[in-house]
Amino acid sequence: MKVLRQFLAGWKVRARGLDNRKGRLHVLPDVHSPQLGNTRDVLVFTPASYRRSSKHYPVIYMQDGQNLFDPATSFAGDWGLGEAVAWSARRGYEAIVVGLPNMGNARLDEYSPFVQEGRGGGLGDQYLDFVVDTVKPLVDKQFRTLPDAAHTGIAGSSMGALISQYAFFRRPDVFGFAAALSPAFWFGDAAILDFVRDARRSDGRLYLDIGLREGEGSVALARRMRDLLVQKGYHPGDTLRWVEDPGGTHHESDWGRRFRKALPFLLRNGAAA
Question: Which residues pair with 115 in a beta bridge?
């Protein structure tokens, strides 16, 4: 937690350095979660056009927010998300990105509704309630958003991918698209597979990927989820984008590179207005 506090303390200064032609990073300080009993800063990145227009924008809520924008606050390099948003905007797909920093030792608990013996988990529903009932109303109030489900997405990698995939099926009234990069579907004895199998099919778009250098078990579980989604009626190339990255590893740089290309797919039915 000490390292996490040091990371987040730097955002108030570093945010000024991320106010440029790519967009602007805003910090909402000390957002308290009554659902989880903790407090964290929330990071909101607006695209460059935000200041030049009166448009309202789709929003993507992303886990592990300290790893998205700045290598100085990241665990192992950042996603370069500011550049990714700018790259997508040049192709006509713009969005506000909300980065939710993880809480260090509480990360596994918050990012899974399922319990993994000896590892934690079990607070995923409370975390999701925090995103939906605390953070989203705050963002919708302070920024020009398109708040309906068709224009609201959720994304993450590893454990952040697990909770994002869960959120898409748990709260289809809120999230109309989701991205799960290098998902930790093994956590909770792969209970996410049964959950998705039993869940009602939700309208919307799903992006799912895996790096082929992440291990046979991770690749096999991701492919099982892909097959399950197809069985549920998600159509590859239409409502489902599946990517196998031949050289991909479990690393921020690979996730940032792939997420940039995923953005136009995720946002194609939800342009700023």
Answer: 121
